[in-house]
Amino acid sequence: MPTTGTANGQGGVPGGGVPDADASTGTAPSSGVPGGGLRDIVQLTLPAASAYLSVLRTATASLAARGDFTLDDIEDLRIAVDEACALLLLSAAPGSNLECTFELSPGIIQVGVTVLSVDGEPPSTDTFAWTVLTALADEVSSSVSTDSRVTIRLRKRRGVPENNAVRESNGYSPTTAAQTTKTQWEKNAGAPNNGPVGAP
Question: Which residues share a beta bridge with 175?
Fold first, then answer.
């Protein structure tokens, strides 16, 4: 069964206490960040299997909507998170969990997806999936810890990324990439649930 958890943002409350998570929303209470904004941190832990990616896609869309992201931004982020998970599931250790952390601040969502890998190698940056990630998110990076846990981090700002114009002038369109990915999902709709890519 998938589980969800929350983590509090930086900062405390008067008297040195730490506020409890909001049980009604499943998110940590907002906390102050430089510039007077608010930040929420939401953590989800799911089995490392493509059958559970629909849960993550739904959570991604819900959190982006909470941040007043546009419909296009929400769809871009859903696809980017799904591709990041698909890349990690290719080398996930059997029986491991997929851990996803969302950090929400005004106009920005940062997503980190982590899984225990069998080979301890970062995902290749020469694949179509990585191209989709870099097109749909403003910033993408990967890292590997000493215990072979591989993490992909995404950062998405509200609105169209400034460098999309450069990508499109080079013949690459995020819209085209998103449509191609959706088509691949449709073709894989009958694929087994334990594969690296799930149904839409």
Answer: none
What residues contact residue 39 under an 8 Å CB cut-off, 6+ apart? 9, 10, 30, 31, 32, 33, 103, 104, 105
pLDDT digits (tens, 9 = 90+) for 10-56: 443 344 443 343 433 444 444 444 444 557 899 999 999 989 999 99
User: Is the Cβ–Cβ distance between 199 and 187 less than 8 Å?
Assistant: no
d(CA 136, CA 174): 6
Distance CA 102, CA 27 (A): 10
195 contacts: CB under 8 Å, gap ≥ 6: 50, 188
What distance, in Å, lies between the first and last C-alpha atoms of the chain? Answer: 20
Contact 140, 126 (CB under 8 A): no
Run of H or E residues at 176: helix 174-187
Which is it for the CA torsion 7, 12, 17, 21, positive or negative? negative
